[in-house]
Amino acid sequence: MKQKQLGRTGLSVSIVGLGTAFTGMRTIRAAHVPYEELADSVDEELGVQTVHAALEAGCTLVDTAALYGGGRSERLIGRALRERPDLAARCIVITKVGRTIHGQDYSYDGVLRSVEASLQRLGLDRLSVVYIHDAMGVPMDEVMGRDRALGALRRLQAEKVIDFVGTAADDPRTNADYIETGEFDAAVVPRAWSLLNQYAARRILPAAEKHNVGLVIATPIERGLLATGPQPGNVYYDRNYSPACQAHVGKIQALCQAYQIPLLAAALQWIPRHPQIAASIPGARFPHEAVANAQAAQVPIPDAFWQELEPLIRHWDDCCNFG
């Protein structure tokens, strides 16, 4: 799979990685259930198989967090890497601190404990990137202070426990605030960049370009809508797409069909065409989804397709559930 550099980190990552927020969850009970209520539904065996499938298919970037599955995501990733050291040797795991299923904690000691626990669950002694996670609604000085989360991560950098520091917030406005400080090497950006959502162009991309912050895009296929196209009766986790938005996806899908290109391939390969964006991390609950995502990154797409697609790329507020 094609690799790109993650901004000023210099790390080389696959243009499609594995997002593990829902990995190993056999069912997602409803469209708007708080994530914390899903944490206990992780099937570890299924999750391990999914990680193996992603890595075997060419993904070299695995995104997780202390929040995901209440730590189960990190644990199953650790097991997957131990079982396949050949795959682990070329895998970069990135994780996050500050938010767990018990709430937010951006204290100095809390972040140190969180990183230590993540390392234990992952079976690693060093992390390439650790992101401050979901600091929405928290004053920046309570996150950025020397005696707060960022200070703790700087200490861990000095001790060579982590290499780089990032921001990852489910609210693009919060992500923009942190990227604009210039303090962060990388960012995970959900809800802000896809064929249906270009919110990142307002502040995130200009700030990332200014500071050479490496961007990884989460929710690139809009909870599956850009994987399958519109399907009557489908319920999408944390989304409520209008009929007009779904009809527009149908137009994009028709263009893909004319070129015999999977919609999923167009959606995922469009993301890293922006020079500041290194990769996307579509979620995969099952092995076949991880394989499909990785294969989509490797489908040949001619320049003529991108030229015809350009007029169809527009922003829909349907994809922005942050107010």
From TrEMBL:
GO terms for molecular function: oxidoreductase activity. PANTHER family: GH17980P-RELATED. Residues 40-311 form the NADP-dependent oxidoreductase domain. One of its GO terms (cellular component) is cytosol. It holds the Pfam family Aldo_ket_red. It comes from Litorilinea aerophila. This is Aldo/keto reductase.
